[in-house]
Amino acid sequence: MAWELGSQIGRAGWVLLTGGRNQGVMDAASRGAKSAGGLTVGILPGSDRHAMSAAVDIPIVTGMGNARNAINILSGDVVVACGMGAGTVSEVALALKANKSVILLNCDDKACTFFQNLGGEQVFVATDVTKAIARISQLLQVD
Amino acid sequence: MAWELGSQIGRAGWVLLTGGRNQGVMDAASRGAKSAGGLTVGILPGSDRHAMSAAVDIPIVTGMGNARNAINILSGDVVVACGMGAGTVSEVALALKANKSVILLNCDDKACTFFQNLGGEQVFVATDVTKAIARISQLLQVD
Amino acid sequence: MAWELGSQIGRAGWVLLTGGRNQGVMDAASRGAKSAGGLTVGILPGSDRHAMSAAVDIPIVTGMGNARNAINILSGDVVVACGMGAGTVSEVALALKANKSVILLNCDDKACTFFQNLGGEQVFVATDVTKAIARISQLLQVD
Amino acid sequence: MAWELGSQIGRAGWVLLTGGRNQGVMDAASRGAKSAGGLTVGILPGSDRHAMSAAVDIPIVTGMGNARNAINILSGDVVVACGMGAGTVSEVALALKANKSVILLNCDDKACTFFQNLGGEQVFVATDVTKAIARISQLLQVD
């Protein structure tokens, strides 16, 4: 699903920004974006390019560990969370704190409800990639 | 409840570390700790001491906004969350990511369940301040 | 000189990364790079895109003030300092600390000497843009 | 000299804040302060307390490498540089950028001149610890 999301982001001509590592959702989304000719940015936690996804075009090396999550969400126009590991939860929460719009993709009922209670109108639950992409389009037009 | 928690932390001779601002849980906990003769550290988001709680002894001025949440949780031996605003949610998530023990105080059922699912054994739900303090004691001894 | 440097970086097909603001060397270099069809990244100090150079393609919004200088130097393959304000001095020093190669362009004798004493072989003094570009080429080939 | 500086800071009842590691100037100053009964804060670069000076009372764990230098200088009322490694140079420059007063202790002529040119009135050169302490007293009274 992350790969498909990245792919459709790339096809739309948007820049994909992720945490930049060579694993999980970050890597799949970046590879998806590259497959569609998109441009990818990776905000890396380490102090060099170690463990970077091969599908990242522009590595930003922060040397700040998970404090870089705050940069991830401030830098994006829209935040899409795919899955719900602890790192992702911190990013969704930081995004809500920063008044960013958040799209939750592939979250279970309890996680969706938790964040909808926390963020109200800022949170949109997308049941598939196409609905997430439609929501991004809508948000970018409003801005 | 935050004031009472701070007070008992101060009485125990532990250092209280908060986000340092003059509002909400941070301020109440810091004032509680000072009332009991404790030492308080405040990790401030701004680039000066503007809006600092008057009950902070040692201000750490980060100039990093909510990225300072990552410092809050790395610096503590134990993380206690009191209430569940977006900033607190980000800190609990970052704490779990960093393998820290987290105590949830004053969380509603859904928030408690959400984080227990996410963090398993790392998460302890305390129904009152006394139980939170007992858990901190236990964790500090194990370390 | 910053404009010319950016222009030659863009022409070489390299990505230009600066502090991203709409003033001074950052802005001039970014505009130079765009004039040559280059790609520009701006690591912004603020928590939004306020005061961003119009010539930045990819804004990274850090919300970290001058702590973002550490990201600037870790993210680059080569660091070029053009002029010597306090922000630039901090970046050159952080670059030396991180074992990065630094090229000093347009520095007065005392500043050049100071940094050559501090950084030894890591520091290269370029008397004009062409020599700086030649040095970058050389460093990128060695890597 | 760092030990003596820390010792006199501790004796004056001021809080000593350093980079917190168990080496060089940071460690010597912290040990000096403890010898005089002072309170010491250490802003650590790593993501745990590894390599912390044993003379640090309050460790702040940033996980941010040398980006933590920006926190060091924002948190202090006065910045004292003792010696001139690359890390220290970055801190003096960041301090000047943040409009902090800086005292240079134990710098050679060229380094002193370089920073006096850069910072003007913000920079005070102290030829010994007693003069540095006198200058700190003066600056704290003005505030």
Kindly describe this structure.
The structure is a homotetramer of 143-residue chains. In chain A, 46% of the residues lie in helices and 18% in strands. The mean pLDDT of chain A is 96. The first copy, chain A, starts with a helix and ends with a helix. The first copy, chain A, is globular and about 40 Å long. Chain A is built from six helices and six strands. Chain A has helices at 2-11, 24-35, 69-75, 86-97, 109-119, 129-142; strands at residues 15-18, 39-44, 58-61, 79-82, 102-105, 123-126. Chain A is of the alpha/beta class and 143 residues long.
Q: Give the overall pLDDT of chain A as a whole number.
A: 96
Strand order of the largest sheet of chain A: 1-2-3
**Structural class by sheet pairing and helices of chain A:** alpha/beta
The number of helices of chain A is 6
Global shape of chain A = globular
* Assembly state (oligomeric): homotetramer
> How is the biggest beta sheet of chain A arranged?
3 strands, parallel
Query: Helical proportion of chain A?
Result: 40-55%
- Rg of chain A computed from alpha carbons, rounded to a whole number of angstroms: 14 Å
Number of strands of chain A: 6
Sketch the topology of chain A as an H/E string, one letter per element.
HEHEEHEHEHEH
| Low-confidence runs of chain A | none
Determine the N-to-C terminus distance of chain A. Answer: 26 Å
Greatest interface (CB-CB under 8 A), with counts per chain: A-B, 27 and 27 residues
The portion of residues forming beta strands of chain A comes to 15-25%
